[in-house]
């Protein structure tokens, strides 16, 4: 767990990082929150390669778990309005709290410990105690998917 709200240090061992990767709910809600969009965020103008891979990893984790959850990569300065959970590296924790709408849970994890944090997140979504997500319909997997773009941006 985090200690005194301090960011996770890069010199911490991987086992400790997984323990320190926690979802911090800023507001208590009754019943599990239905999650439809999880945003992996970064600072505009600076996207490290390992953080890009973190977003791709999350997208694959949701697909393998058959969860109807959209993994989105977006800068902190331009978060989607329907963000249910925000994922940031430890050095952006304070900026994420300011940028995220009030009540948006934060998952703070370094890229090196993201696999464990995502496995924990999927387990929480499947358990349905704090958060829950809809399962994909097996019949929908074989149907063609129609996507729309505005310029280079995919429209959800």
Produce the secondary structure layout:
Layout: H1 14-20, E1 23-24, E2 33-34, E3 37-42, H2 49-64, E4 70-75, E5 85-88, H3 93-99, E6 106-108, H4 114-127, E7 131-132, H5 138-141, E8 148-150, E9 153-155
Short description:
About 30% of the residues lie in helices and about 20% in strands.
CATH superfamily: Response regulator
Q: What percentage of residues falls in helices of 4 or more residues?
A: 25-40%
* Rg over alpha carbons: 16 Å
- The helix/strand series, from N terminus to C terminus, equals HEEEHEEHEHEHEE
Please summarize the sheet with the most strands: 5 strands, mixed
* Class inferred from helices and paired strands: alpha/beta
Task: For this entry, give a set of tags.
five-stranded mixed sheet, two-stranded parallel ribbon, 5 helices, 31% helix, disordered N terminus
Describe this structure in words.
With 156 residues, this protein is an alpha/beta fold. The chain has a single domain, classed as Response regulator (Rossmann fold), CATH 3.40.50.2300. The protein has 5 helices and 9 strands. Helix 2 (49-64) runs parallel beside helix 4 (114-127). The longest helix has 16 residues, at 49-64. Residues 1-29 have low confidence and may be disordered.
